[in-house]
Design brief:
The protein is α/β, with parallel strands linked by helices. Helices cover 54% and strands 13% of the residues. It contains 14 helices and nine strands.
Length: 297
């Protein structure tokens, strides 16, 4: 697909507000809608065409994207898309949702002659703004081929995984690793501090060690400065994803003790009102930050 298209985009949250403008900058007329008036109010300044309603955004569009916070929001938007999109359109959802709910949506859209691509992403808000996300895609091969150039605008790495909900499972696999790394990093830092290691020295060492994977390195600066805002990914979002992961684990009979622990800690942080903080703030829950603030005995 090389022609300039008339596209709909639904959802202008932390990720969507950074992704949709890339399509507009690539020359596609991108009509955007969000239920939050404040998010919609900044759409025009990002090169988007703000829509006053979902119907206005979707009307007559051949391709529609969505980036939504949870299963319920996607179910609602997809239900409306069934009635508002034209037959033969492609609906591309980039949210992180459950495979079970996604499969239901696939059946509903197919009954209306609408192709459905599941295209969740992995990466931070900064990577979204730069168009360097990892995009996992599943759904009809023909729809993927048709829309591949649009997905390339949003991600530096695009992976087609199959004809059904493989991409949904793949995203949960990735976030299982992220949740585990995040919890392990917090526990390791707490252990090191309590064992007498200097905080700054320990972080520098980690950044030069075999443990210096991209995720760990991406968090070192926040950990050094002990600043959890702005968040590249929030406690709320990862906690939601871990709940999806554990739901899938129950459905498939998968034993996941480490992920269960990570989920418990994330839920506890949500309960303490820390949901908007960056996920690496888990280290504060583990007690390491109290030790840092007090300094050595």
């Amino acid at each position: 697909m090389t022609e300039r298209l008339d596209i709909a985009w639904v959802g202008l949250g932390e990720m969507g507000s950074r992704m949709a403008p890339r399509l507009a900058a690539a020359g596609h007329r991108t009509t955007a809608f969000d239920v939050n008036p404040a998010a919609l109010g900044s759409a025009a300044s990002s090169g988007l065409v703000p829509a006053s309603s979902l119907a206005q955004a979707l009307d007559g569009k051949q391709v529609a994207f969505s980036m939504l916070p949870h299963d319920g929001a996607l179910l609602e938007i997809a239900s409306d898309a069934c009635d508002m999109l034209i037959e033969g359109a492609v609906f591309i959802d980039m949210s992180t949702v459950s495979p079970r709910v996604s499969a239901k949506i696939a059946c509903d859209l197919a009954a209306r002659g609408i192709s459905y691509l599941r295209a969740p992403v992995s990466g931070s808000t900064a990577l979204a703004e730069a168009g360097k996300l990892t995009v996992m895609v599943s759904g009809p091969q023909a729809a993927f081929d048709h829309c591949r150039s649009l997905l390339d605008v949003l991600g530096r790495s695009v992976h087609y995984l199959g004809g059904a909900d493989e991409a949904r499972t793949a995203k949960l696999v990735i976030n299982t690793v992220v949740a585990g790394l995040n919890q392990s990093l917090a526990e390791a830092l707490d252990l090191g501090r309590r064992g007498g290691l200097d905080w700054a020295d320990m972080l520098e060492m980690l950044g030069q060690s075999a443990a210096a994977c991209p995720y760990v390195c991406s968090k070192l600066d926040k950990l050094k400065r002990r600043e959890w805002l702005p968040a590249a990914a929030t406690i709320n979002l990862l906690a939601k994803d871990v709940r999806l992961i554990l739901d899938l684990a129950r459905e498939t009979g998968t034993y996941m003790p480490a992920t269960t622990t990570a989920g418990s800690v994330l839920s506890a942080m949500e309960g303490r009102g820390c949901g908007a903080l960056d996920i690496c703030s888990v280290v504060s829950f583990m007690g390491a930050m109290d030790e840092v603030e007090r300094g050595p005995d």
